[in-house]
Amino acid sequence: MRSGTSFRLIVLILLAPPMALGQQKSQPSIPNSPDGFNKQYKNLFKAFEKAENLSKPHKDENEEELIERFRTFAAPEGWFADVFGPEEGPKFAKHYSELFRAFQISTTVEFSMVLGEWSAQVHTKALRAYQINPLDSARSSVPPLLTVQVFRVQHFTAPLQNSEGTWNGRHYDHYWVESFIYVDGAFRFIGTHNCAFWRPCSANDPVFRGQLVRRDPAR
Fold this sequence. Notes:
This protein is α+β, with helices and mostly antiparallel strands. Helix content is 38%, strand content 21%. It contains 4 helices and 7 strands; from the N terminus they run H-H-H-H-E-E-E-E-E-E-E.
């Protein structure tokens, strides 16, 4: 793990204005499909690779591109008022911005673990989709239904085979499950497993606390 440069990127994430989340620069629309999610996630990883490579010119531009790629996974600011109403929307937006920072930091740490390793792989897989009403029915005559899409994200590396035919080196394998909604041409992070950010369980979620769900130790 390149702790020095990764720490710099984490600081940039922490210093970014919270509600700049929904103010993304214009990006091409991502298809609402498993391939579309895979493309969006791998574009994020590629941006991280560029930002970590301090030998390249235009380092500041590369870091800004990474921040913009992260923002494509953030729910747009106006979405909160549309779904939760003008009174509750700002409260949920503030809560979400804090949780989204944890998502950014956890993802940055994961990217750091595999970047530069031989045969580093980033895979995503669609698990299921379901509809959910984020509001109590009593609070809305026509409750909005959100389609939540659940994906498994996996980062892993393979050990290197030497000239003697034996395997050595570092092996890393970690996967977790996260939930997203498709809004304004991109997949937006809303929580891990079935724990959406507006549900009480999100406050105790390990990823939201910047920790990891499951990791296979290096061997």
